[in-house]
Amino acid sequence: MIYREAGQFRTTYAADQRIFPIVQDRAGMALLLAVAFVGVPLVASEYALSGLLIPMLVLALAALGLNILTGYAGQFSLGTAAFMSVGAFAAYNLQLRLPGIPLLVIFVLAGLIAAAVGMVFGLPSLRIKGFYLAVATLAAQFFVDWLFTKVGWFSNYSSSGVITAQPMAIAGIPLETPVRRYLLVLSIVSLLALVAKNLARTRTGRSWMAVRDMDVAAEVIGIPILRTKLLAFGLSSFYCGVAGALWAFAYLGTVEPQAFDLQRSFQILFMVIIGGLGTVMGSFLGAAFIMLFPLFLNWAFHAVVRGGEVRAGLLSQLELVCFGALIIVFLIVEPHGFARLWQIGKEKLRLWPFPH
Amino acid sequence: MRKTKRWWWLGAASALVLVWAAPARAEGEQFMPVPSYRVGPYAAGGTSLYGGFIDYMNLINLRDGGINGVKLTWEECETEYKPDRGVECYERLKGKGPTGASMFHPYSTGISYALISKVSQDKIPLVTIAHGRTDAADGRYFPYVFPLITHYWSQNTDIIRYIGQREGGVAKLKGKKIVHLHHGSAYGKEPNVVFQKQAEKYGYEAKIIEVPAPGSEQQAQWLEIRQFKPDWVIVTGWGVMNPAMLKNAARVGFPMDHIIGNFWTGSEEDVEPVGAAAKGYISAAINPSGKDFKVIQEIERVVYGAGKGNMVDKKRVGSIYYNRGVLTGIVSVEAIRVAQGKFGKKPLTGEQIRWGLENLNLDPARIAAIGATNFIQPLKVTCSDHEGGGAVKFQQWDGTKWKVISDWVQADKELVRPLIEESASKYAKENNIPQRDCAKEST
């Protein structure tokens, strides 16, 4: 009832091509953005901002990057963390060696460098497919890790290889407070999400989906496979590279290869799978679930047994058990991920409260 | 059916609300965050470390009624040894308690690096006993970071000096071959600079061999070692790397008493899986193992006697990691005590405790009063030197337990200090940190 599109007529092509054709969706999105940009900075605590929201948004961006590659273009990759790592190290070195470049330009350049690396490691995708490709992208993971550990130049010959990210500033305004860092991350992530959402509806996006669904058929109807696949790798790595730079600069405050290990690649892959392949919203929902839920469990278990004599070690184990069980439950209930659940919810809302 | 479901949700929701409303903290308590890791690959170390830490705080509360009457409270947060979880825990715990977090003990090099810039903003001391960023020992640039007791660079000079002792004087090191076998991580690479510098000073032939993390595969590295035929092998290992290292060494027949591990390569957990083959293996230690110390006996009597011990596996009480946790507790409590001497016997802020850490002076008399003679080395922290001690003891595995085989071996400060100052000023320049004038600090 509240979610009916009856009576909303599209009279122009522009109206028909909108991202959100339904008024309720537009209002909902506007409200969400207003809350995220204005409401959250006003009320959220320092912990919620820098402990929860910033990392969640950054990981959502990385998941979005992987979703372009895996969800839209159908190419499996386990090199996500490697491309994030490239972005982080690129941003650090650019800032160190070319002082005076504005921060946002540095992030874009870092993304572009990651994109170039991603395209190189995407080349095997022309010959190998599916799980074999996933194994081939593992090479990126190990190579990048090895390179940054072995070659001292990348970490400015720091004795340990862990480097402190430089303080961030835009136009002379230091981004030291959590609120400012949050707004920076939020702006970049929303802008890139908008780009991704639109890309999926263009010729490029449609050729990705054609390649994903059947690449031989796509080639027959005239889609250049090489360009399409490499573009997907490049764009995906661009997103991951920016995410990596943000992870290092806006969240951790350090740049080190160990922050971008294979486990991080898996974590982001799970976000995409649980959130929903081939959806922008799924990346955000997946990131929220995978990143925030263990923290919630940690908090909840400690809150429930506060003062009690339950062993902390046992609690930590229980959290992992609960989290694992929930992943299985969700995948059984809805194999297409949270984005699909949301879609079903919307369809139900259309009829609610009248069942017919 | 539908209705019952709805009731279920309502019940769950109200339970959550109740839980949310429950926390109420008494004023007059000093809050200590406990960022522990009890799951994951390093759980064995984390469980004992933080178990010992909590047991010592419990001892202070139960036996003395707190520090000068100010009770300690704490809350755990699981970091899984990962930097991102560690940062989250730090943000979660830093504002708890009436005066906020007292200090932070991450026991993870990755986490401590990530917190360095955050702690100076929040004015909470970051105490990285025997781990973390080495050049942070220069307190002029790192006012809130304390690599207390010793760090990797001092330790490496300790080990080389000990090898010198065994060879009959450091002059005999000339022409010897020494390998540094290290974990492929920030932590493992840290001592390389000092290891190379000493090779120039003493004239030994240095070779650095890296084991890719996590370190369970070492066949190739030990083949390389066998070809190089070193006189000594120094190992900077951690977690699964350590037993694998000993197994591989035994396989190629390298003499165990010529392998020297650092203080994270010498716990019971590292040698027990190897069994008798590890007999004779030597490692550095900032604290000995065992229960022959008054402080450990007190914990057993007071804390475990009251059934409030933190360790599920009571056999681990007195292990290397457990004792290191107790040592962490001792240093923390003593720093708070020093700060209370200046700011009053009440809950203190991180900034005030920072002063306490900087003026910490554990002399043998004080150490004896704590009941920790031979357990902890004398410690004198100053504004410019945030390390304080720098010595380690050496211990040898006799097949069933670690036996201390040396006195405190002092670090080569003349060699280490200039390197620290150089590295710290480079960091300060990169990050625009001004130098603090130590002459103007209040004492």
Most residues in contact, chain pair and counts: A-B, 41 and 54 residues
What is the arithmetic mean of pLDDT of chain A? 88
Count of runs of 4 or more consecutive helical residues of chain B: 15
Tally of alpha and pi helices of chain A: 14
N/C terminus separation of chain A: 11 Å
Order of neighbouring strands in the sheet with most strands of chain A: 1-4
Element string of chain B (H = helix, E = strand): HEHEHHEEHEHHEHEHEHEHHHEHEEEH
Which structural category do the helix and sheet elements of chain B fall into?
alpha/beta
Query: What is the helix content of chain B?
Result: 40-55%
CATH architecture of the largest domain in chain B: 3-Layer(aba) Sandwich
How many strand segments of chain A? 4
Low-confidence stretches of chain B: 15-25
Mean pLDDT of chain B: 88
Question: Could you explain the architecture of this structure?
Answer:
- The complex is a heterodimer of chains A (356) and B (443).
- Chain A has 356 residues and is mostly helical.
- Chain A has a domain at 22-260.
- Chain A contains 14 helices and four strands.
- In chain A, a hairpin with a 2-residue loop joins strand 2 and strand 3.
- The longest helix of chain A has 28 residues, at 225-252.
- The model of chain A has no long low-confidence stretch (mean pLDDT 88).
- With 443 residues, chain B is α/β, with parallel strands linked by helices.
- Chain B folds into two domains: 25-150 and 291-380, Rossmann fold, CATH 3.40.50.2300; 152-285 and 394-411, Rossmann fold (3-Layer(aba) Sandwich).
- Helix content of chain B is 44%, strand content 13%.
- Chain B is built from 15 helices and 13 strands.
- In chain B, the strands form four sheets. Chain B has a seven-stranded mixed sheet with strand order 6-5-7-8-9-12-13, with helices on both faces. Chain B has a two-stranded parallel sheet with strand order 1-2. A two-stranded parallel sheet of chain B has the order 3-4.
- In chain B, strand 12 and strand 13 (402-404) form a beta hairpin.
- In chain B, helix 2 (43-64) crosses helix 12 (320-343), helix 3 (83-93) packs parallel to helix 4 (109-122) and helix 12 crosses helix 13 (350-358).
- The longest helix of chain B is centred in the C-terminal third of the chain and has 24 residues, at 320-343.
- At the A-B interface, helix 3, helix 12 and helix 13 of A face helix 1, helix 2, helix 3, helix 4 and helix 6 of B.
